Amino acid sequence: MSFSNIFLRPFHTSKECYHIIKMSRLRVVDNSEIGRRAMAEGKPPKCIHVYNKKGVGTIGDKVLVAILGEKKKGILVGVKKHQPPRVPKFDTNNIVLIDDTGTPLGNRIHVPIPVMLRTILKEKTFAKGVDYTKILAIASRFV
Amino acid sequence: MFSNLYRQCLVEKHFVYNLFPLCKWSQCFASSQPELATESTIQAFEEPEKRSIKLEQRFIYPEFLPDPKIEWRNSIRERLERQDMLKRRSQIEIPEFYVGTIMAVTSFTPHSTSKKNRFLGICIQRKGCGLRATFVLRNIIDNLGTEVAYHLYDPTIEKIEVIRLEKRLDDELFYLRDALPEYSTFPLDMEPVILPDNTPIPVNTTQVILKPRPWVGRWERTDFKGINREHMMTLISDKMKMQIAKHQKPWEKYDLMKQYRATIPEEEQKEIFAEVYSQLHQLELGKKKSKRIRTFVKPKKSA
Amino acid sequence: MNQADLSKLVSKLRINIRPRHYNLKNPKGPEGRLERLRIVVTGLIKHERIQLNYRVADEARGYAERLISEAIRYGDCHAPTMEIADYWLTEKQLIHKLFKVLVPRFHECNMSYTKLLRLSTDHELTRMQGVLELRGNPYPPLIKDLSRNRNLLHNVLLDAARKDYRHEQYLRIAQGMSSEGKKSNEETITGNIEDKDKNEKA
């Protein structure tokens, strides 16, 4: 929980808060310049859209984030909400920033990412569409 | 008591027209009276032994006890589940473990290239009954807390290893999410510590120090013994301290029926463990044998 | 999905347990509910038969049963049981009654320790009333003992067995009159008793 005090509200933190919806704060886990600066300044990116039909993001979903006054796209590579058996659950909501072609902005991910992301990202990749599998190449460890 | 009654009636040669004693009489007739006396004395001697053998197992195999919720009880389903559990236990070795034990689980996964996945961590929760029994492992990998839940009888699990067998002071360790990272950090290549046979399970009495708020739970309102309370009190506000007393429920320890509805009575537990005792015992013997064989084979290979 | 609580071992009760407790409304919440039931349990142990609202009686019955079964299970030298008895019995002399009177009374009992009966209500507006009593109380029974009805099957069989037995007795006396040997007489007596046993089993 790296929220700065400005964003701490007096309402209780229930399970719903772990859902990744619009206005959720996320954590950038790659070493892209903008991501590193945002986390260092204590201004974590804010989810402004989840690209799925439910509106609640989970592992492998694409999100649009507002980060340091810019709009960037990112892939969720680990979430905090409750997961089915054998799927890892992390202490933070992690994203990796990508550009429109699916190329990650950084060149290293410094946290473990779930193994099932391989299958999910391969399924989402089409021949003439966006290639998400480049994220897998920069991952350091799978759990 | 009723055998005495019967004896009296025989002496007086008169019959009591009562349904209930009649039923009891018919039981008494089945065995003659001197035998009855010996049986009762034998039971008195054997009972404490039986209790110690069978009912200690409930800590090792808690998932064999059914769900205490009365609406969900179904004796046939429970029995079938127990048979399935024993079948699964004969396939892979499911070791004895408790909350607080450090374990490693190797499972098959279609996602990775090696088709296998190993996760090591401390068991922070063990819940559920029957085939739906689960446990949760937690570890901090690359400074990121990671938790994985497993079904105990999941057919995709290849191996469950116990790395360090120990207990903690509590039944749930979810406060490790809010504790300092060193309490749940374990190297993934940790080597197993083997306890000598017939030693009591060691209890780890560490009291964790929590990180500053916000927390996942209201730990100050709980009575977990594994949290350093003095340090926790420095982290919370005065208002929260005021609210602690308000949320205590001291009457719950006197609520006998609530406790009864949350447990399986002793008689039913005895029945269940008597049913599975022989097969579990054989499995344990098999484990010991295989261990012996392994220790015998190893020096051959090195030579 | 729950797991059974392992820390406590309890004896099985011989009454039907409702899956959930009755929702006895009380302004003090669950604590007040227990306090109300405490009065009922104390009254039951003291008077051995009480008449009250049926739902309260049904709820208090479980607690009284559990209290007695704990007392039988652990005896009076067990501190937690003593604490529970101290909470549930507001009049302290009743603790002595529980351990010295009720425990010996129910020690070998293989039925429920209490009985609950519904009372017919005269008016729709009155709440359903019940009578809660301990077994083995000194009062006259509330229900007629129907097991003495002559037309019940087991009584018919017993009557027949008795008739046969008498018939054989008469025969034996007749044989005795005709002055037979004493040894053969004894054999017939034992044979008669065995026959009688068989009849009763049937």
Task: Give a structural overview.
The complex is a heterotrimer of chains A (143), B (303) and C (202). Chain A has 143 residues and is α+β, with helices and mostly antiparallel strands. In chain A, 15% of the residues lie in helices and 19% in strands. Chain A is built from three helices and six strands; from the N terminus they run E-H-E-E-E-E-E-H-H. In chain A, a hairpin with a 2-residue loop joins strand 3 and strand 4. The radius of gyration of chain A is 14 Å and the shape is globular. Chain B is α+β, with helices and mostly antiparallel strands and 303 residues long. Chain B contains nine helices and five strands, in the order H-H-H-H-H-E-E-E-E-E-H-H-H-H. The radius of gyration of chain B is 26 Å and the shape is globular. With 202 residues, chain C is mainly alpha-helical. Strand 5 of chain A pairs antiparallel with strand 4 of chain B, so a sheet runs across the interface.
List the helices and strands and how they pair.
The complex is a heterotrimer of chains A (143), B (303) and C (202).
Chain A lengths: L26 E2 L4 H8 L5 E5 L11 E6 L2 E7 L12 E2 L3 E5 L17 H9 L9 H5 L5
Parallel strand pairs in A: 1-6
Antiparallel strand pairs in A: 2-3, 3-4, 4-6
Chain B lengths: L1 H11 L6 H12 L2 H23 L1 H4 L14 H17 L10 E7 L7 E12 L6 E8 L2 E8 L5 E8 L64 H7 L2 H9 L9 H7 L3 H37 L1
Antiparallel strand pairs in B: 1-2, 1-5, 2-3, 3-4
Helix pairs in contact in B: 5-9
Chain C lengths: L29 H18 L1 E5 H21 L4 H10 L4 H14 L7 E5 L10 E6 L18 H25 L4 H20 L1
Antiparallel strand pairs in C: 1-3, 2-3
Helix pairs in contact in C: 1-2, 2-3, 2-4, 5-6
Give average pLDDT of chain A, whole number.
89
Largest sheet of chain B: 5 strands, antiparallel
How many E strands of chain A?
Answer: 6
Strands ordered across the widest β-sheet of chain A? 1-6-4-3-2
Main location (chain A): mitochondrion
GO biological process, one term (chain A): translation
GO cellular component, one term (chain A): ribosome
Family (chain A): Belongs to the universal ribosomal protein uL14 family.
